């Protein structure tokens, strides 16, 4: 009786070699950017420990000092201006991130992405740990914490352009929206894990809330150095090794009986793993593509759609980050018949945690839905515009105090759907736009321009909300609605072009 190939082996070999590389690259980049977000999250959790309500804390009997109101706080955040100091720390990161993003993409096109990502994650780990070491070194200078956050913001810019470029190198436009929408959930996973890890140590030794995430992102940097394959041409060495091994195996199997033959013939992946000399010749010619000159900053701006999507993301991120930073304060300050037990900035309150988790879930769902729909209809701009249009009345309903939590979560999904789509699939599409004539060395620069412009909105949104909120929460929501409308208007030309394409007036294009 002829033996058959084991089902598990048959399943494994049913995938081509490229499929395995794609899946492995997708998993690694997901892991890498999860660690980036994981290392950013501790500051929002630790704030509740740096400035506390000391009247609710039992004071140790052997503690010296006479100030009963601030004895449990961490200087310099023990003063009345602690909110201003927290804002300085946050803005140090956001402003440095926004400025550094424009520079990061230029370096990303000219430095191997594997080295670039590795260096960025190692340095991010160093600066994240340095913030936590302030606890053990007993540092009480606002300049130290602001400087460390600013440097961390700069090195964190290495992540997004590089991982989007890696995924864009491996996946075509066909299902890029859905795949990158699911892949973009690394943001939510990183935020959740970062909150949980920071929460484990925040009450006992808040320095560990930074050190542990710092060690994690540094470890993933080492993983990146040893395992990342940034583009298809880099697997040539492995394929050439397989060629040599194949020659030896073929010589051996020729001496065996026919029962051994299915192991070589029934696998669909063998056509790719066991390559022919013709394929070897094509492989050796691939590096010619690497000689293409990297695109300039101004050249990237001239790609059709880059400016529109960048400015659209500025307003979308303004709304998104205003929700992120001000949702807890809004819920705790405005009573809409909810049993709200949280008190800002006590980020470990149960009510805040439940709302945060629901919000993160909706954000992930918004990105996946936006990617799937845009793949099906072939219109990235149209999908973004529709979601932003629907988001505007949702924001107004939430501002009128009608079912605020549910509406805010829906708003989060509607706003973050376009945000996720623009920073992933749209960036990858524009980085491989037909006007580039095959030049693949534009992905990182385009991604950096789009996300860097969006990061300006991320810094402006919470700042404007802080200035406007004393005049009333309704005014904050009017600001968000205005930003939504402006984001839609900026995409109007691209939406018109896509609709004309569907009507047969011009070629139908994505991105």
What does this protein look like?
It is a multi-pass membrane protein. This protein is mainly α and 511 residues long. Helices cover 71% and strands 0% of the residues. It has 22 helices and no strands. Helix 7 crosses helix 20 and helix 9 packs across helix 10. It starts with 6 loop residues before the first helix and ends in a 9-residue tail after the last helix.
The share of residues in extended strands comes to: under 5%
Characterize the largest beta sheet: strand count, sense, and whether it forms a barrel: none
Output the radius of gyration: 26 Å
Q: Structural class given helices, strands, pairing?
A: mainly alpha
Protein name: Glucose-6-phosphate exchanger SLC37A2
Subcellular location: Endoplasmic reticulum membrane
Keywords: Antiport, Endoplasmic reticulum, Glycoprotein, Membrane, Sugar transport, Transmembrane, Transmembrane helix, Transport
Family: Belongs to the major facilitator superfamily. Organophosphate:Pi antiporter (OPA) (TC 2.A.1.4) family.
Notable features of this structure?
single chain, 511 residues, mainly alpha
In short:
This protein has 22 helices and no strands. With 511 residues, it is an all-alpha fold. InterPro entries: MFS, MFS_dom, MFS_trans_sf, SLC37A1_2, Sugar_P_transporter.
């Amino acid at each position: 009786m002829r033996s058959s190939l084991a089902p598990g082996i048959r399943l494994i070999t049913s995938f081509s070699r490229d499929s395995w590389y794609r899946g492995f690259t997708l998993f690694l980049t997901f892991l890498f950017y999860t660690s980036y977000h994981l290392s950013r999250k501790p500051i929002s959790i630790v704030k509740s420990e740096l400035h506390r309500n000391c009247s609710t804390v039992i004071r140790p009997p052997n503690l010296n000092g006479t100030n009963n109101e601030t004895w449990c706080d961490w200087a310099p955040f023990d003063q009345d201006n602690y909110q201003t100091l927290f804002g300085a720390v946050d803005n140090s990161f956001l402003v440095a991130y926004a400025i550094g993003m424009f520079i990061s993409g230029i370096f990303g096109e000219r430095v191997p992405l594997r080295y670039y990502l590795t260096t960025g994650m190692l340095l991010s780990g160093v600066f994240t740990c340095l913030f936590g070491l302030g606890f053990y070194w007993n540092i009480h200078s606002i300049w130290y914490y602001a400087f460390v956050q600013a440097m961390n913001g700069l090195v964190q810019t290495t992540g997004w352009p590089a991982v989007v470029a890696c995924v864009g190198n491996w996946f075509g436009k066909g299902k890029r929206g859905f795949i990158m929408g699911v892949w973009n959930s690394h943001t939510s996973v990183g935020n959740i894990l970062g909150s949980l890890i920071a929460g484990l140590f925040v009450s006992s030794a808040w320095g560990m809330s930074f050190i542990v995430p710092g060690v994690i992102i540094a470890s993933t940097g080492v993983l990146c150095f040893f395992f990342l394959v940034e583009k298809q041409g880099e697997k040539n060495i492995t394929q050439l090794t397989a060629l040599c091994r194949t020659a030896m195996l073929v010589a051996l199997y020729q001496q065996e009986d026919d029962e051994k033959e299915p192991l070589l013939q029934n696998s669909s992946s063998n056509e790719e793993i066991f390559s022919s000399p013709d394929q070897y010749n094509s492989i050796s010619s691939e590096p010619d593509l690497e000689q293409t000159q990297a695109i300039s900053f101004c050249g990237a701006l001239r790609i059709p759609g880059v400016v529109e999507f960048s400015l659209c993301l500025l307003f979308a991120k303004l709304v998104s980050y205003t929700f992120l930073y001000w949702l807890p304060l809004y819920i705790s300050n405005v009573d809409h018949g909810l049993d709200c037990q949280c008190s800002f900035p006590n980020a470990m309150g149960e009510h805040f945690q439940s709302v945060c988790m629901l919000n993160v879930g909706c954000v992930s769902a918004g990105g996946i839905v936006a990617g799937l729909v845009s793949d099906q209809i072939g219109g990235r701009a149209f999908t973004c515009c529709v979601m932003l249009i629907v988001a505007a009345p949702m924001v107004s309903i939430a501002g009128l105090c009608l079912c605020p939590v549910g509406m805010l979560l829906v708003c989060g999904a509607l706003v973050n759907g376009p945000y996720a789509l623009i920073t992933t699939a749209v960036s990858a599409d524009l980085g491989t736009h037909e006007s580039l004539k095959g030049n693949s060395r534009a992905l990182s620069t385009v991604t950096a321009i789009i996300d860097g412009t969006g990061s300006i909105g991320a810094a402006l949104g919470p700042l404007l909300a802080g200035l406007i909120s004393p005049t009333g929460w309704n005014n904050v929501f009017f600001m968000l609605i205005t930003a939504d409308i402006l984001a839609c208007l900026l995409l109007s030309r691209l939406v018109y072009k896509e609709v004309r394409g569907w009507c047969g007036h011009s070629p139908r294009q994505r991105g």
